[in-house]
Structures are given as C-alpha cells and as structure tokens.
Design a protein that fits this description.
The protein has 129 residues and is mainly α. The chain is built from four helices and no strands. It has helices spanning 12-30, 40-66, 72-93, 103-128.
Length: 129
C-alpha cells in the first residue's frame, strides 16, 4: 500500500479554500450588498466552485494517487459529492427538496455536506494508511 503524507489531505490550500467558503457563506447569509454576493444563487455557485477545488486538492486527488477508487470511504465521498450537486441544482433551477426551501437553505446544506466530505476524506486517509 502506498503511503501518503497528511499534507495531501489537509494542506494550506484546502484551509484557504475552507476559509473562503466560510466567508462567502457568512456574507451571503448576513444579507450583505456586495455585488457578487447580492444574489444567493451566485453564492451557491461560488461555494460549489470552491468545493470542487477542495475536492480536487485533498479528496479525489488523494483517492486517485492512492489508487483506492473502490474503497468504501471513497464511495461515501462520491455520494456526498453527488448530494452537493443535487442541492446546488435544486438551488439553481428552483426544485424543492425536503428541508431545503430556497437558495439560502441550499447554501447551508451545501456547506454542511462539504464539511462532511472533508471529515470523510480525513477519515479515509487515516483508515487507509
């Protein structure tokens, strides 16, 4: 089995992206009038792009480098990623999901799912090494 350093799972880039996600979420939910964050759908799109970048850095990147595509925790990560995409799609296209009435609640749900995905990625690293 290949050994990977913790820096591939939690590194400064991921921490910066997580901080940006937190900042965008805070500003969007606060009702700020910043041009980019005035529309909740734009905030959802920004968080989605930042989440993709996080996944490429520490989640899927680690799975690919370790060759563990079928590991159960990798599959959990795929499911969480798909859930994030479904929630974002509902926010963009106006679909109603249980417990998610609009883009602001979709943003909260996405951030929670991204957090779960980060925890899953860290657990995958710790279990698979």
């Amino acid at each position: 089995m290949k050994t990977m350093s913790l820096s591939t799972v939690i590194n400064p880039t991921i921490l910066i992206l997580a901080a940006l996600i937190a900042l965008v979420t805070f500003l969007a939910l606060r009702g700020n009038n910043l041009p980019l964050l005035a529309n909740p759908k734009v905030s959802v799109a920004i968080v989605l792009v930042l989440g993709f970048a996080m996944c490429a850095q520490g989640g899927l990147g680690y799975v690919g480098a370790a060759g563990q595509w079928t590991h159960p925790l990798a599959i959990v990560g795929y499911i969480l990623g798909a859930a994030i995409l479904v929630v974002a799609g509902a926010a963009f296209f106006g679909f109603k999901l249980p417990l998610i009435a609009g883009p602001s609640q979709a943003l909260i749900a996405m951030v929670a799912l991204i957090g779960a995905k980060v925890v899953n990625s860290l657990a995958h690293y710790l279990v698979a090494r």
